[in-house]
Structures are given as C-alpha cells and as structure tokens.
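Subject: for your reference before the review

Hello V.,

The reviewers asked for a structural picture of the protein, and I figured it would be easier to keep everything in one thread rather than splitting it across files. Below is the amino acid sequence we used in the manuscript, unchanged from the supplementary table.
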Amino acid sequence: MKIIALEEHFVVPELMDAWQDGPDKAEEDSALERARRVQRALLDTGEQRIADMDDPGVDVQVLSLTSPGVQNLPAPDAVSLARQANDALADVAAAHPDRFQGFAAIPTPDPAAAAELGSTGQPTSGVTARDRAGGAS
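And here is what came back from the structure prediction:
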C-alpha cells in the first residue's frame, strides 16, 4: 500500500523575506519565530526531505506553500511570489515525480491573477489559499 502525506508545507526564501516587512508583522512575529525553527525543513525539497519521508515510510508528499502564504502581501508582491513558489513547486515535482505532488498557491489579493494562475495548466494536484486576503479574515 502506498502512503501519501497530504499538504506538506514548503517555502521559498523570497517569500520569507517578504513576510518580514509585511503589514501584519506584529501578528506574524510568533508564526515567523516558529517558522525560523523549522526553516531548514521548509526550504528543503530535496534529498533530506526524501530521507525524512523514507524513515516513516511515506511514499509521496503533496506540498503546499506554508502559512501565511501570499495572502497578507500587497497584490503585486503576492502575484510575483505565488508565481515564483509555483515554479519552484513544479521544478520539485518534475525532479521527483514519484515522490512529490503539489497544490499551487494563488494570490487572492488579486482575483484576476488568482484565476489566471489557477488555470495555467502547470502540473499540480490542486490549489490552496489561506483564510486571509489583504488583512481581512
């Protein structure tokens, strides 16, 4: 029986940088502090992550961008970073198609771009969006 871990998180360095200057900085500080402790694991989408999957017998991980995603960023930044994260995710899935699948990130601060990114035809298993857009819950 194949074991699949669903919605395992990852991040790209540029998004972590953007969070540091985001509008919800005070609210996000505790989440960022936790993220720093696991930053290495979030950034690793290669051999160490695969070894960590092999240890408990996980065959496939379905990756998604970690919280808070791009939803708390200004629309232009959210669009750019969602594209960058989705490109990185596509590269990871292409490099290890038998080990990784992914949920594409969509930039909800820009609905038109979110719709466009949601239909690009990039090989993903779905899309994901966090519960906030532009500071609204």
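For the response letter, the relevant points are probably these. The beta strands are 4-10, 60-65, 100-105, 126-128. Residues 72 and 134 are 5 Å apart (CA to CA).

Happy to draft the paragraph if you're swamped.

O.
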